[in-house]
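haha ok so turns out i had the wrong file open the whole time. this is the CORRECT one, sorry everyone. sequence first:
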Amino acid sequence: MKFTWNDFDEILDVLDVVLAKNPEFYGIDQLKYKTTSDDKSYVLKVDVPGFGPEDVGVEFEGRHLVVTFGEKTKKFRVPQNADQDGTTAEVKNGLLTVTLPKKEQKTSSVKIQVK
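then structure:
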């Protein structure tokens, strides 16, 4: 079986789900969020009850999207084909919605000479 970087990303995503479902076991606060995707973008929705746009921070740290509000901070691993420059965030009715457009993936093959 061949292991790829995408497999590693999927393992990290599963680990995030496990930690989110069992926060008391792992000693972390549960943050309610949902991720979805379609052909054009990834969407992250985070419950931020009682907080407005001025109270919520969203930023990239490498391949992680960091969401901060109140005393809570959560890092989300960002897929490689997410367009950081085109990302938008909005808080409305206690819900933060972050939309990350997908970059068009170029499929190319490069032969590497083995010495």
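Residues 23-28 have pLDDT under 50 and may be disordered.
again sry for the mixup
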